[in-house]
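Q: I'm writing up a methods section and want to include an example of the input and output format. Could you take the sequence below and give the corresponding predicted structure tokens, formatted cleanly so I can copy it straight into the document?
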Amino acid sequence: MNYIFPALCAALLLLTSESFAENARPSMDIVKQQMTVRYGNRHPAQWGENAAGVKTGLDTREKVIALTLDACGSAKGKGIDSGLIEFLARERIPATLFINSRWIDANREAFRTIAANPLFEIANHGTWHKPASVSGRSIYGISGTKDASELVDEIELNARRIEELTGKRPKLYRSGTAYYDEVAVEIANALDHQVAGFSLLGDAGATYSAIQVKAALLRAVPGDIALLHMNHPESGTRAGIIAAVPELKRRGFRFARMSDYPLK
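A: Here is the clean output for your methods example:
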């Protein structure tokens, strides 16, 4: 029987991200086994928002900014800022929306409507909004995924759900809290996701006032990725964005989805 495990490992290692890119989806059990074989003995050395491999900007010198809106889906974060979405649609402003699985549960029809608008790119914000760890490391009192297998569930279950509902697999992943270790980033990449950080803190977890959001966005430089939220209609995010957009346009800025440019 000793020959079986090495053979299984070799077979699992043949399942690369190309399988995901080609829509040849192996089972979740196989994927978790694969990632455990490849990464289970790795010990991360980094922990933070800018771990190795996290993409924090658009690779361009053009005066363009990517607005990214998180929908986190926690008990107090299942709302939808319909006014913000309507403003972006009316003004033809593209954005990348990072959607958590629990938020989809609470907003199924709204999600389908938003995802059908080509202005909006749907990205992966995880299944349970956990920090991306292979050792259970925590931040802000939120425990991260405990190992490679749990991280696969966090990323891949939501990726498959989004694909089932929209017909398109997400290519970008942002973890809950936007914290990572570098091994988790490698696992996300192996699951055919680029890990999306940010360069401009737009609303500090939807805690900024409208004045603060506007001021943050007006600090934009070419290629910035702005981190904002679309799940707290009671916050100052919408009013701040609405106030900032005309001035950004006056300064010559355009808006883009993250996938519209290479990332760095």
